[in-house]
Amino acid sequence: MDVIRGKVRQREHLMYEEMLEVAKWMFQDDTPKGEIASFLTDLSLKGETAHEVAALATVMRSFALDVPAKSDIYMDNCGTGGDGLNTFNISTASAFVLAGAGVKMAKHGNRKISSASGSSDVLEALGIHTNISIEQTIELLEKEGIAFLYAPNVHPKLKRIGEVRRALGKPTIFNLVGPLTNPVSLSTQFTGINRPNFVMEYASVLQMLGRERAMVVSGPQGLDEASLAGQNTFVFVDKGDLIPFALTAEDAGLNYAPLEAIRGGNAEENARIMRTLLAGKESAYFDTVLLNVGIGLFCYGSAQTVKEGVDMAKDSILSGRALQKLEAVVAFSEQIKEVEVGQ
């Protein structure tokens, strides 16, 4: 292990098998947290590779709890986070719109680690209970076509790693790996990363992990979502092909807006933003969700073009179906709380 860690300190990339070994070492209960922090810092300074990300994702997913959802075409739109741009929770809002458009959403997420409000933080502000059992998660997924998998619930081995990440307070390889470790079997995925120069490599990781169709995006200024604020960098995974392309808001029939127009705040502020846009109030927040959902619908195969997907996304919101999905998940959550209080 010292040899492998020494290679990283010397800014040498690891082979897939070497990263498998060091990943297992990080998840051992007796591995000192300070040594894990040092390794993660060295790895970040070196710059992670596709093989290192794929190896860590493979090990982390092997430790995840089993979520035996019935066979279907599930999608996740969890991003890496870590962009430091303090936008609202775009992918969480988009998940409800995607579900309203008929996509089966198994959304992976966590609390804030390097952001003001993580996915789980805003869900709780909306009144959604994130600490639910695997059985309840499957029931919600099958009943409403959308469920949220809170990372610590399905990755019990992450507890110590989470403590290390919070102490570091900055993005690590675990930001990159998080979206790749959904315990629900995914054939389709749309994810954003905060590194425009790593989009092709990340797409190759998704391909290595068996995604048949997937989309990776890095927005302007390294936003880990598609943005209205300029050119977005993409790679589309279509089975054996990796197809790079660029897209602006105007290409999808939407208007430019600066990143400042979609700033978020704490969980409560972001929950208000989300409810307002799902109620149909048009704004830069609304259009940002339309763009991301349009891309997601194209990736899922529901739309033939991103522009068609944007139109379908708008219909999901203005018809009330997206908001209905939110209310259904809130109601399900309240039922769980009532049962727990009564026990």
UniProtKB/TrEMBL annotation:
Gene3D superfamilies: Nucleoside phosphorylase/phosphoribosyltransferase catalytic domain, Transferase, Pyrimidine Nucleoside Phosphorylase, Chain C
Cofactor binding comment, as recorded: Binds 2 magnesium ions per monomer.
Positions of the Glycosyl transferase family 3 N-terminal domain: 7-64
InterPro entries with a match to the protein in the record: Anthranilate_Pribosyl_Tfrase, Glycosyl_Trfase_fam3, Glycosyl_Trfase_fam3_N_dom, Glycosyl_Trfase_fam3_N_dom_sf, Nuc_phospho_transferase
EC number(s) from the headed UniProt entry: 2.4.2.18
Binding site for 5-phospho-alpha-D-ribose 1-diphosphate: 79, 82-83, 87, 89-92, 107-115, 119
Pfam family, one: Glycos_transf_3
Protein's pathway: Amino-acid biosynthesis; L-tryptophan biosynthesis; L-tryptophan from chorismate: step 2/5
Protein keywords: Amino-acid biosynthesis, Aromatic amino acid biosynthesis, Glycosyltransferase, Magnesium, Metal-binding, Transferase, Tryptophan biosynthesis
Amino-acid positions noted as binding anthranilate 2 in the UniProt annotation, renumbered to this chain: R165
Enzyme's top EC category: transferase
Amino-acid positions noted as binding anthranilate 1 in the UniProt annotation, renumbered to this chain: G79, N110
Binding site for Mg(2+) 2: D224, E225
Required cofactor names: Mg(2+)
Listed GO MF terms: anthranilate phosphoribosyltransferase activity
Binding site for Mg(2+) 1: S91, E225
Organism superkingdom: Bacteria
Reaction(s) the record says it catalyses: N-(5-phospho-beta-D-ribosyl)anthranilate + diphosphate = 5-phospho-alpha-D-ribose 1-diphosphate + anthranilate
Domain (Glycosyl transferase family) ranges: 74-323
HAMAP family: TrpD (MF_00211)
Role description: Catalyzes the transfer of the phosphoribosyl group of 5-phosphorylribose-1-pyrophosphate (PRPP) to anthranilate to yield N-(5'-phosphoribosyl)-anthranilate (PRA).
Subunit structure, as described in the record: Homodimer.
Record-stated family: Belongs to the anthranilate phosphoribosyltransferase family.
PANTHER family registered for this protein in UniProt: ANTHRANILATE PHOSPHORIBOSYLTRANSFERASE (PTHR43285)
Protein name stated in the entry: Anthranilate phosphoribosyltransferase
Organism: Lysinibacillus parviboronicapiens
Lineage start: Bacteria, Bacillati, Bacillota, Bacilli, Bacillales
